[in-house]
Specification:
Blueprint (H helix, E strand, L loop, with lengths): L1 E7 L2 E6 L9 E11 L1 H7 L10 E2 L3 E9 L11 E4 L2 E2 L5 H4 L10 E2 L11 E5 L3 E3 L6 H5 L1 H13 L7 E5 L3 H12 L3 E5 L3 H9 L4 E3 L2 H4 L5 E6 L4 H7 L3 E9 L13 H6 L3 E4 L7 H16 L2 E4 L5 H8 L6 E4 L4 H6 L3 H8 L7 H12 L4 H21 L1
Parallel strand pairs: 11-12, 11-14, 12-13, 14-15, 15-16, 17-18
Antiparallel strand pairs: 1-2, 1-4, 3-5, 3-9, 3-18, 5-6, 6-10, 7-8
């Protein structure tokens, strides 16, 4: 299989590795979509603990089951799945407390063991979920970041119909916006880039601007969620909490950074300052939640680049135009061979910013028994209608 191997900080290459075999209790997944996130960038830059090189990175993925190991029940080859990349022991104090993210014996796909920027990946079947028909491999790959956001909502005990201010409109900030909106909160977003501000508004933010004054709305909020990791943002957030307000820290700040706060205000206003780190026990919940937010979250995938274009993917990540960069690791022909016409049609009509799925569907139809002229025109119409509907909305 082809895989992207990190050899040293800043140094990676495309390699051919033997196809993996499933051990007892494991499944092998044909990876069809793999997300790249900030954690991957930190790993690539050599700014992340836990890892030993060389390593195949990639921990946000979806695809079809290729093989199942001894003793696996509930999964069969051909099932569409995604999986929690975090492998916890179920035996330590933190696992007993369901704080799997803090497990003393934690390992993770794409961080401490071979990951999903490859054509195949092996995972324990207990961490995999079968995806409903309304999802596909790409939305399966979005379940991991969504689970981080849902964990943050749980950590912050976010209650309905309150106000929230989010700092940062990258993938996590925008997913947090969607999750908070679906709980009925009024959400404002502070974000320096105008294009990202526009995305936040498109996803239902009450206001979005480069700073709180620019929001021209509330100045104090029940919840502050930092998804930026920027010290200036967090410091600003600490002055914006209402009584009984909660600051939820999701953004990853520099390891040695510190900030002052007012112990008097913390006491007097009964604030809470909460950290939220990765998935914990929220992967299954995110898989169940995904169908209800899938349209919004799919629109966050702005780039789809091949494994061989990984340098471009890393460059794209630095741009404000990029929200979520995906690597469709499977070759087009392999992917098409697994899909039915109905599925292709639904892919062709989805919100698809660069036409990847429309092209894929058209190619597949050409290879099948349908004439490109008839079915292709049909799909183009469908795509156009979707675009028009989106524009009108
Ligand atoms: Zn990630
Ligand atoms: Zn444990």
């Amino acid at each position: 299989m082809r895989a992207l191997e990190l050899l040293a900080p800043g140094q990676h290459r495309l390699v051919d590795l033997p196809d993996p075999e499933p051990g007892p209790g494991e499944i092998v997944i044909n990876v069809e979509a793999s997300g790249v996130c900030g954690t991957d960038l930190r790993i690539i830059q050599g700014d992340y603990g836990h890892i030993s090189l060389p390593l195949v990175i990639g921990h946000e993925f979806g695809g079809h089951v290729a093989a199942v190991g001894e003793g696996v029940t509930g999964f069969a080859p051909g099932d569409l799945v995604s999986a929690d990349p975090n492998i916890y022991c179920r035996d330590c104090e933190w696992c007993h407390r369901k704080a799997y993210n803090l497990c003393e014996n934690w390992t993770a796909v794409g961080i401490t063991r071979t990951g999903a920027l490859a054509e195949k990946v092996v995972v324990p079947s207990r961490l995999a979920v079968r995806l409903p028909d309304s999802l596909d491999a790409e939305t399966g790959a979005l379940i991991e970041p969504l689970s981080c956001v849902l964990h943050a909502m749980q950590r912050g005990q976010v209650e309905e119909k309150r106000t929230m201010l989010i700092y940062g409109a990258g993938a996590i900030g925008l997913m947090a916006l969607v999750a908070a909106r679906s709980r009925g909160l009024d959400v404002c977003v502070v974000e320096p880039h105008e294009k990202r501000q526009a995305r936040a508004l498109g996803l239902g933010a009450f206001a979005s601007a480069g700073d709180v004054a620019g929001l021209r709305t509330h100045e104090q909020f029940d919840y502050i969620l930092d998804a930026s990791g920027a010290l200036s943002a967090i410091a600003d957030g600490l002055t914006r909490l209402r009584k009984r307000g909660t600051l939820i820290q999701m953004g990853v700040a520099p390891t040695a950074a510190t900030l002052p706060y007012s112990p008097y205000e913390l006491y007097e206003k009964e604030w809470s300052i909460i950290g939220s780190n990765s998935v914990a026990d929220c992967y299954q919940l995110a898989a169940q939640t995904m169908p209800s937010v899938v349209a919004d979250l799919r629109s966050l995938v702005t780039h789809r680049l091949g494994l061989e274009d990984f340098d471009e993917a890393v460059r794209a990540m630095a741009s404000p135009d990029a929200i979520k960069v995906h690597i469709p690791t499977w070759r087009r022909e392999q992917l098409m061979a697994t899909m039915e016409l109905g599925k292709l049609r639904s892919l062709a009509s989805c919100a698809d910013s660069d036409g990847f799925f429309t092209d894929l569907a058209l190619d597949a139809l050409e290879m099948g028994s349908w004439t490109r002229r008839r079915a292709g025109a049909d799909l183009r119409d469908q795509q156009r209608t979707t675009d028009t509907t989106r524009l009108a909305a």
